[in-house]
Design goal:
The protein is mainly α. The protein has helices spanning 2-32, 34-69, 74-101, 103-109, 114-127, 131-146, 150-173, 183-208, 223-255, 259-296, 299-326, 328-333, 343-359, 361-376, 381-405, 409-448. The two termini are 31 Å apart.
Length: 449
């Protein structure tokens, strides 16, 4: 538990600081204008869907570097997989910019109102360029975390959150002689923060691990490591996409109901994301610890670490449930101006949705911990299929049926989210404990014999 928390707490802090960057945009635009808030919820969902698909290559670097650092492969293999992780992320980013530059017709085709689609597109046409440094940051965070240098990830992200808040305030509201730019100001701030974060992590990596020489002859391909990262990364990216896409699709469906339900959904989702990021930090630490145990062939420690990680995640889930059920209105009120005429309507619906978010805390924590364990042992393809079936085959279908066919609106859509997460959690946990772990144990015994 001590080892897991030593690694996990800085990763949790880094994720929460990254959440603060996103929440700052949502809060400041919520105080600026409700339509701007609804637009950034929609635009942020689309950006994050694209980003998280490409982030699979960054996530793949984490178990590969952890395993290499725990055995005889050492610096050479660490350099190979990290460098090719950056290559794959840059290739993906070059492709990902295109749909964000052309986002307005895409959003209109999804049934969004012209005003919201135009505002969201104006955000993405600027913020979309930030996907290049953002994916680079993802790779370097995974690299440094796998080498148990998670503290620097935390401090760089905290600095990014502070810079983002300051630049947002100046550009959104037009301070210190700058023009009032609204949603476009928030987009400029996001890109600036991502660039600064990437530069900061590059400088640290070069100084802390000169023996890895990450950027020496960076242009030279290493097709063996490229294939290794690609094979592990694309299922992780698609798995991430199935979950994040579920929430993004829910934003699109709730957008059909109008700006007030969409704003309430966005706020409730921001708060639910904050608790999810704690589980994600623990899951990342679990992936690293599992990868190192796999590199040493230590099945006993792998099993023990998995049990501890699940217990810690469950304890925090209970805390999140308590907070969401006791203080829903003060939490939602943080995102809204006291003078906003739509505030009572958003508070009423947002409180209900936050109660739904409390329902899926345990399931959300369990499914992300199962993913962390499975990625640590480099089992990613079957979990990808499980996630797609649970989130989309079951969760999305139930959300649409309950929200629009049965007529429960946003609450029905969120009920579908709960159902999808519960199915995914149970199925993925079964995959690790009943199938993957026994198979690895048998293999380890055969090698020992």
């Amino acid at each position: 538990m001590r080892a897991l928390l030593t690694l996990g707490v800085p990763l949790i802090g880094g994720h929460l600081a990254q959440f603060a960057v996103q929440a700052t945009d949502t809060i400041m635009l919520g105080w600026y204008d409700v339509e701007a808030l609804a637009a950034v919820v929609l635009a942020g969902s689309l950006f994050f869907v694209i980003f998280i698909l490409g982030a699979g290559f960054g996530f793949a670097v984490m178990p590969l570097v952890a395993e290499a650092s725990a055995n005889d492969e050492g610096a050479v293999q660490v350099r190979r997989v990290t460098r090719m992780g950056l290559w794959l992320s840059l290739i993906f980013a070059a492709l990902a910019i295109v749909p964000m530059l052309l986002s307005e017709p895409i959003l209109l085709a999804m049934g969004q109102t012209p005003v919201i689609a135009r505002a969201a597109s104006s955000y993405l046409q600027i913020a979309g360029w930030g996907v290049v440094p953002a994916l680079g940051v993802m790779v370097l965070k995974s690299y440094l975390a796998a080498l148990e240098r998670a503290q620097v990830v935390l401090w760089v992200t905290i600095l990014a959150a502070v810079v983002n808040a300051a630049v947002n305030w100046v550009l959104i509201f037009g301070q210190f002689g700058f023009p009032e730019m609204g949603i476009r100001g928030a987009a400029i701030a996001s890109v600036m923060v991502q660039v600064v974060s990437f530069i900061g992590l590059v400088i640290y990596a070069l100084r802390a691990f000169p023996e890895h020489a990450l950027f020496q002859r960076f242009w030279r391909p290493d097709w063996g490591a490229f294939a290794q990262v690609f094979r592990l990364g694309w299922p992780i990216g698609l798995t991430n996409l199935t979950e994040v896409g579920l929430f993004a699709a829910s934003a699109v469906m709730i957008g059909w109901l109008g700006p007030i339900p969409l704003a309430a959904h966005g706020i409730a989702l921001e708060l639910a994301s904050a608790t999810f990021l704690v589980h994600l930090g623990l899951s990342n630490a679990t992936t690293i610890r599992t990868g190192k145990a796999m590199g040493r062939g230590d099945i006993v420690m792998l099993r023990r670490g998995g049990l501890v990680a699940i217990a810690l995640s469950g304890m925090f889930a209970l805390l999140g449930i308590t907070v969401f059920l006791i203080w829903p209105e003060p939490l939602i009120g943080l995102f809204l101006s006291p003078e906003d005429p739509e505030r009572p309507s958003i508070l009423l619906l947002g409180t209900t949705l936050l109660g739904m978010a409390a329902l899926f805390q345990l399931a959300d924590g369990a499914q992300v911990m199962a993913h962390g364990l499975l990625r640590g042992v480099q089992d990613t393809r079957v979990p990808m299929v499980i996630s797609a079936l649970a989130y989309w085959g079951i969760g999305m279908s139930c959300g649409y049926m309950l929200g629009f066919v049965a007529g429960y609106g946003a609450v029905g859509v969120w009920t579908g989210l709960v159902i999808g997460l519960v199915v995914a959690a149970a199925w993925l946990m079964y995959r690790f404990w009943a199938q993957t772990l026994p198979r690895m144990t048998r293999r380890s015994l055969e090698i020992a014999a």
